[in-house]
Amino acid sequence: MSDRQLTLFSKTVIQLMSEGQLHVMHRYIQHGSITTLDHSLMVAYYSWRLNRRFRLKADEISLIRGALLHDYFLYDWHVSEKWHRFHGFRHPTFALVNARQDYQLNKIEEEIIKKHMWPLTVIPPTCREAWIVNVMDTFSSIVEVMMEYRIFAGLKRKWYERLDEAIFKYIKENIIEA
Ligand SMILES: [Fe+2]
Ligand SMILES: [Fe+2]
Predict the structure, then answer these.
(1) Distance between Cα 76 and ligand 2 center (Å)
(2) How far apart are CA 121 and CA 114, in angstroms?
(3) Domain segments of the chain as ranges
């Protein structure tokens, strides 16, 4: 893939994927038939777009990296196991512990991961990047659940279609077919 084809978004995703275990999230389902990797890509992509569209002045690379890692808990939350009971409340901490092990995180990226489930996790976000991901995570989760219904097939196409093509290509070549 030539450098010219890649946007800042694709470059950041590919870089992050080459460093840690982001690809493992492809094994787990988040909502309906959407994997945790797809979900995180959508949250990252739409957070990035929202920031540009409304000129929210977020640090773009931290925003994309934090969003990609916000659900880096690396297990199937549908399988009931004692150690990850109360998943909704606890998974931001699991994600943060795993992400710290595999990546060098800055303060913004840590805050994004920690606060993405607010208000479930009582203390509100303290930076704009964490607010953006908090909002986009909620919004994307609703869309992902709706997409499961045939009546919203158009919505599914649209929501996916807008994702960066370079990323799809990269995932197909390096993760699914590898
Ligand atoms: Fe989450
Ligand atoms: Fe999420």
Answers:
(1) 13
(2) 8
(3) 23-176
Neighbours of ion ligand 1 (CB under 5 A): 71
Taking the centre of ligand 1 as the mean of its atom positions, its distance from the CA of residue 105, in whole angstroms, is 18
Alpha carbon of 117 to ligand 1 centroid (Å): 6
CB atoms within 10 A of CB 34: 22
pTM over 0.90: yes
- Tell me, in angstroms, the distance from the centre of ligand 2 to residue 70's CA: 6
- State the DSSP H helix or E strand holding residue 48, giving kind and residue range, or none if neither: helix 36-53
Protein fold of 23-176 = Hypothetical protein af1432 (1.10.3210)
Q: What does the pLDDT look like over 14-38, one tens digit per residue?
A: 999 999 999 999 999 988 888 999 9
Tens-digit pLDDT profile for residues 44-80? 999 999 999 999 999 999 999 999 999 999 988 888 7
Distance from residue 140's CA to the centre of ligand 1 (Å): 11
Q: Measure 9 CA to ligand 2 centroid, in angstroms.
A: 18
